[in-house]
Design goal:
This protein is rod-shaped. Helix 3 packs across helix 5 and helix 6 crosses helix 7. The strands form 3 sheets. Strands 6, 7, 8 and 9 form a 4-stranded antiparallel sheet that branches. 51% of the residues lie in helices and 21% in strands. The longest helix has 65 residues. The chain has 289 residues and is of the alpha+beta class. The protein has 3 domains: 46 residues; 121 residues, Band 7 domain (Tetrahydropterin Synthase, Chain A), CATH 3.30.479; 61 residues. Pfam families: Band_7.
Length: 289
């Protein structure tokens, strides 16, 4: 009896070992390796299933996946997974790249039929190769300054577009492909690029200084012209005023006489060397007898 129980316990352990679990948020694919139906596929929702001899179970997560291909052994696999490519000048650039994607649950069987691998192998091998090939293609027409500078963002956008077009039909939706950190270039190339950037910045600074000096000179000139014009305007106004007063006095001579009378205090000068009397014409103002 004891032996029977032992056998039953062993069989139970074997049966449990032959069961595979499809976790929540995953879709399972049961693949028959031998027999009359060799190569047949069965798509399975989350749960625990008897696999049995001659079958393999693959699980595909349908939530967002993120993977980084880096030089660091602390990220991804403990090997150098960074990607290298060349520019139009033949200069080698090395970079760490990341990808974020998700799988269409309705196309899991199609994905397995195409790649015959699980999600980890698809990511490590196929997606990485696609990113590398796209980088090589897109960077081959760019010079090093474009890759290292302003063209860096557009380059990775082109890579994302290329990879997305390649895998979207089979059910892999690429959300984003992105750079991780700085691109790695030969040190002499970096120094040359930095020197050129610095020279360009200095030239732009000199141009800005010249433009500023010209603007200040124009401002001073404008202020001087304004002041000169203001003085001319004032002088013209004063001359016009004098001319108008002269015309008025010539047309009305008595106005000057009346003004002198109003200002005279009625006293003759104490000293009169020439014998001339004040210019006031008393006769013209005296009453008639």
């Amino acid at each position: 009896m004891k032996r029977v129980l032992t056998v039953l316990s062993m069989l139970s352990v074997l049966l449990l070992a032959a069961c595979s679990k499809v976790p929540a948020g995953n879709v399972g694919v049961k693949f028959q390796m031998y027999g009359d139906d060799k190569g047949s596929l069965h798509e399975l929702p989350p749960g625990r299933y008897w696999v049995g001899w001659g079958y393999e179970m693959y699980t595909f997560p349908t939530f967002t996946q993120t993977y980084t291909f880096t030089r660091s052994a602390a990220e991804g696999r403990p090997v150098d997974e960074s990607i290298s490519f060349q520019t139009a000048q033949g200069l080698t650039v090395n970079a760490d790249v990341g990808i974020t994607y998700h799988i269409d649950p309705s196309k899991v069987t199609l994905i397995f039929q195409k790649y015959r691998k699980g999600i980890d192998e698809i990511t490590d091998i196929y997606l990485r190769n696609m990113i590398r090939d796209a980088l090589v293609k897109e960077a081959s027409s760019l010079d090093i300054e474009s890759v290292y500078g302003k063209g860096k963002a557009s380059l990775i956008e082109s890579v994302q577009r290329d990879v997305s077009e390649e895998v979207s039909a089979v059910g892999i939706d690429v959300e984003k492909i992105y750079w991780i950190g700085e691109l790695r270039l030969p040190e002499n190339v970096v120094q040359s690029i930095n020197a050129k950037i610095q020279a360009t910045q200095m030239a732009e600074q000199r141009q800005n200084e010249v433009a500023q000096a010209q603007a200040e000179a124009q401002k001073v000139e404008a202020e001087a012209q304004g002041q000169a014009q203001a003085r001319i305007t004032i002088a013209e106004a004063e001359a016009r005023s004098i001319a108008l007063k002269g015309d008025a006095l010539r047309q009305n001579p008595n106005v000057l006489q009346m003004s002198a009378i109003e200002k005279w205090d009625g006293h003759l000068p104490t000293y009169n060397g020439g014998g001339a009397l004040p210019f006031v014409n008393l006769a013209g103002t005296a009453p008639a007898k």
